[in-house]
Structure prediction request, 422 residues.
Amino acid sequence: MSELNPIHILLVDDHFIVRSGLVASLELEDDLRIVAEAECGEEVASLYQTHNPDLVLMDLQLPGINGIETTASLSREFTAAKVLMFSTFARDDEINAALEAGALGYLQKSAERDELVTAIRAVATGNIYLADDLAERLRDLRSGPNITTREREILALIARGKANKEIAEALGIAEDTVKRHASNVFQKFGVNDRAGATSEAIRRGIVKIEP
Amino acid sequence: MSELNPIHILLVDDHFIVRSGLVASLELEDDLRIVAEAECGEEVASLYQTHNPDLVLMDLQLPGINGIETTASLSREFTAAKVLMFSTFARDDEINAALEAGALGYLQKSAERDELVTAIRAVATGNIYLADDLAERLRDLRSGPNITTREREILALIARGKANKEIAEALGIAEDTVKRHASNVFQKFGVNDRAGATSEAIRRGIVKIEP
DNA sequence: CACGGACTCCCCCAAAAGAGGGGGGCAGAG
DNA sequence: CTCTGCCCCCCTCTTTTGGGGGAGTCCGTG
Prediction:
């Protein structure tokens, strides 16, 4: 809280624009000090060790190992690490994954400066920070239907246009079983065909889409 | 190029972090001057009129009217407006839409500072700026399969899990016609079922996904 | 005007999908 | 130990899908 004991921050973001924006904004607060910057997840561990920051402000979208994985491995290595995740989006599954990986807070990049500073101070002192609306959505997610790992696998293949028979062969199970899983997913999603399930899966971030 | 004739920039971005980052970075260049900032598309027109900037640096993702629509209406009103679109992603369809809306350049936020400055100078003097890889992808897109409006409509309904019969009723056409359109789309996409088509459509940005 | 593209509809048909109904095994939690 | 959730398999059934053929209109461009 005072200049005598500033919050040391390790910044992790691959966009220089964002880094310079954060540096410019945060250095206006005399209790915040950015002591190191990383451009990718790979650099984080060693920078953490040398600078021992009070808080890691981490972008979720990072090239290579992403913010979630970085957070997870950082938390494993340094259990005291306090991570505030910082993302362009507020996707339910990402928030969930970030918190499970050990992040203490999740903030959208659209957040105002005040909120950012509040979140930093909260997380640096070991509190959990989540904006109201995010907290609400997270509750919905946790109470919502949970898709099993097997169902995820089938879903991923369905979204890639695979037929039940192909999926069965790929997974080494009977086609009937694939249909069974698919039906269960449809029910959980409240849809009634694979196209609808595909949309849902992509929307919920269960299935990633890439070229 | 000189301090006597700096490039006046209107910045449009809803994220204060990005704005302050850009201000911090660009003011290091003495031929660049940010003369105004807008947080949303609605503010752009009047700010443009009062400041008459040489360049508008516009974020594509804006709340309310997005960067593309804003660019389109700005270009209509002020034909001399030079817009450099600035986006987190490099989605083919967005690049295409941005250029069609009248933007002279498209830059990813992951761009380095050098590239940003280069792009700004290029666009401010009326040139078109597109990174190599983006230009290449754009060519692919233009030469690639073009989906007709009717096909888009059908695609959107397919992605929402509608059956052919439902789509036919919704559009007031025969189910056979829906199937015909669907088949054509499958062929154009190189997929063989509606789930695959849904993925493709979402990936290409033809179908939007929202809660 | 002729041509191509978009849109429309018709027919047929094999294959797949989706919704039921069974049942069994195996883990972890209570 | 029982119960629950996940995973697996088999069956039947109806509906949907997707591919093939052919064929008409309308519209804009060359």
